[in-house]
Design brief:
about 600 residues, alpha+beta, Immunoglobulin-like, 4 domains
């Protein structure tokens, strides 16, 4: 009986120890409890578990002069894990008296934890603020990372730029390279990073009215792909800062203290406006910017069954990579093939500029004159906030030699078709001999001849072959999965044909691959470019019955296209991404409901 009591006691003791060990702590610590009104205070909110949704206090009666800075410590000592996460703020009192720092909140494993309110006493100004010689305070006050947004309220598909600047006052210096801790992701934007050609080129400028030196780290060009409030994640750096101290060398020079600071540019919110509905043309294809439009033909005079190239070209500044060119309509007697798309674009801080074109191969069938009606291209100009349209000139294709139609010289109907019967000239029958010049020939008996038996027995010999071919065809039709696979592979290679042509050029390959993936989604899911956030795509594919593995592969391909804009890739990686795209589209096409 005594042994049972001991065992129960031991179990309760162990469980209690484990519970105590796993207990979450969340505390607020201040650097001092008494300070002058001209001094500043550091507040650390520290936890021993990784929490979410950190919510700081309102800091009433204080002004936040720095932070939040985040620090994480994760170590193992004698097999035991030690973890801590700290959010730090630097605050300055606004009045004297006993001031209260309210509760901060954090969520850990679904539970909400709060700190205990802390009070500090603020007295009259002191002659020499104690933080004046504190290296951390000096570093916090003299180095700033800023994300400058050119336009925080753009239209859908209107270009904005984010410029990341590092401001350093003349009281401190940075002599070592900084380290990037968190790179911004632009989930709902088309993005292109333009790294500074010389990150160490120092410029002179102002920060909050004070003289500062600064360097431009990076400029990112963004085109929002959906409307509403879109968040830009912060760029976060770990920067070694040399702060001069009061100590001096034997030669009189001041010694410096090196402080490593984690500095964030802070998140930014962009409020994207939808394009106005009023005045929107029916043929609007999503172009936003300033453009010129032109339609040209390689030749306008040719013979029947010769070919010509008809090219539509958009030139200018704007979202060239996502806009849709207007389609070309020709008379039915002009045979027209699928267009080949050509891009010549470049991305700079001022946005995307250059040209895109689509070239159609056209082959006339009959002699005559065929008009290609004017083509209209519409775009939205964000500077004037209006829709503008450009109409091309009418082209007339003159086919000089070939078969003639009754309607060759007449106008075509409103759809560009000619519906009259074809009338051929007498020259087309000149090879026919009308006068007979016949003579008797020697005849032999056809019955039971070699030719007779060949004609009788030949079809009988073909019966087994026809049966075999029929069975093969029926087996192929019965193979539903195989049929789906063949159709899916054909679909995948159709959409990826443009990307395959650019496999020798990383930039053009991944741009073509991204456009191919988007075009496939447009055709398969009937969604627009503005709806193509990764989260939305993932949700749609899952709802359509696509397995998680295929969905993950598709999203990872989109991410690869984003990362490839500023990360070099080998030919092996490009080939792997192409093969993965073929396999993924094929798999998704089979599984779509």
């Amino acid at each position: 009986m005594l042994q049972i009591k001991h065992i129960v006691f031991l179990v309760v003791f162990v469980l209690g120890a484990l519970t105590a060990q796993a207990q979450v702590t969340f505390t607020a610590k201040v650097s001092k409890t008494k300070l002058g009104i001209n001094e500043r205070l550091r507040v650390d909110f520290e936890m021993n578990a990784d929490g979410d949704n950190f919510n700081p206090p309102a800091f009433e009666d204080f002004r936040v002069v720095g932070g939040p800075n985040q620090a994480i410590s994760n170590s193992y000592i004698n097999g035991k894990r030690s973890y801590s996460k700290t959010y730090s703020y630097f605050i300055a009192p606004l009045r004297k008296g006993t001031l209260k720092i309210g509760q901060a909140e954090i969520i850990v494993d679904g539970q909400t934890y709060k700190t205990i309110p802390t009070s500090v006493e603020v007295v009259n100004a002191v002659k020499t603020p104690t933080e004046g010689n504190n290296a951390e305070f000096v570093a916090e006050d003299n180095v700033h990372l800023v994300a400058e947004v050119s336009n925080s309220n753009p239209y859908l598909n209107e270009r904005i730029t984010v410029t990341y600047k590092l401001y350093v006052s003349k009281d401190v210096s940075i002599t070592s390279r900084w380290r990037e801790l968190a790179t911004p992701r632009y989930a709902d934007f088309w993005s292109k990073n333009i790294d500074a050609t010389d990150q160490f080129k120092t410029l002179e400028g102002k920060y909050k009215g004070e003289d500062y030196r600064y360097v431009i780290l990076r400029t990112t060009v963004l085109y929002p792909q959906k409307t509403g409030e879109l968040d830009i994640e912060p760029l976060t750096l770990d920067i070694p800062i040399d702060v001069p101290s009061t100590k001096r060398t034997i030669f009189g020079g001041r010694l410096s203290t090196r402080i490593n600071k984690t500095i964030s540019a802070g998140s930014r919110t962009i409020n994207v406006k939808p394009l106005p509905f009023e005045g929107k043309p029916d043929n609007f294809g999503g172009a936003v910017g300033e453009f010129q439009f032109n339609v040209t033909a390689s030749k306008t005079t040719l013979d029947a069954n010769e070919s010509l190239d008809l090219t539509t070209t958009v030139t200018g500044n704007g979202n060239l990579m996502t806009l849709t060119l207007p389609t070309v309509t020709t008379p039915s007697t002009l045979e027209m093939y699928e267009p080949e798309r050509t891009e010549n674009i470049r991305t700079r801080a001022s946005g995307i500029s250059g040209s895109i074109s689509e070239t159609y191969a056209i082959v006339p069938q009959y002699k005559g004159q065929y008009p290609i009606r004017p083509i209209e291209f519409s775009y939205f100009n964000p500077k004037t906030e209006t829709y503008e349209s450009i109409t091309s000139q009418e082209l007339v294709i003159n086919v000089e030699n070939g078969p003639i139609t009754e309607a060759a010289d007449s106008t075509v109907d409103e759809n560009g078709n000619i519906g009259k019967a074809i009338v051929l000239s007498q020259d087309d029958f000149k090879y026919l001999k009308l006068d007979g010049d016949l003579s008797a020939i020697e005849t032999t008996s056809f019955f039971k001849s070699t030719t007779f038996w060949a004609l009788v027995g030949g079809p009988l010999l073909l019966i087994p072959l026809l049966i075999l071919v029929g069975k093969k065809r029926d087996s192929r039709k019965a193979d539903v999965q195989g049929t789906k696979l063949r159709k899916a592979n054909k679909m995948a290679r159709k959409y990826l044909a443009a990307a395959k042509k650019q496999m020798g050029n990383q930039t053009l390959f991944y741009e073509s691959l991204e456009r191919s993936l988007h075009n496939y989604l447009k055709a398969s899911l009937q969604i627009e470019t503005s709806e193509m956030s990764k989260e939305h795509i993932e949700l749609l594919l899952v709802n359509k019955g696509v397995e998680n593995t295929a969905v993950s592969n598709f999203v990872s391909l989109l991410k690869s296209c984003e990362f490839a804009r500023y990360t070099p890739s080998s030919n092996v990686t490009i080939q792997q991404d192409y093969d993965k795209a073929v396999s993924t589209i094929s798999t998704i096409d089979k599984q779509l409901k």
